[in-house]
Amino acid sequence: MEGIDNEWTYSKTPFVNYNKLPPGTYTFRVKASNDNGIWNEDGDSFLIVIAPPWYQTIWFYLACFLSAAGILYAI
Fold first, then answer.
1. Considering 18, 33, 55, 72, which has the largest number of Cβ atoms within 10 A of its Cβ?
2. Long-range contacts of 54-58 (CB under 8 A, 24+ apart)
């Protein structure tokens, strides 16, 4: 995964786990070999976008600000 791993990760299973990735855009690159050990040197890539949680969005901050301003105005 670009930006996370500096070197290729080798796996004997067709699964890779990345836990607790921060919000952002990542490119996952993969190369594979067949049963004879011949590698596909071109590989493939996947774009992965992780959105921030709802409480870390600008809309939440704006709603909190407007709610606090409304409460202060009402008082």
1. 18
2. 56/23
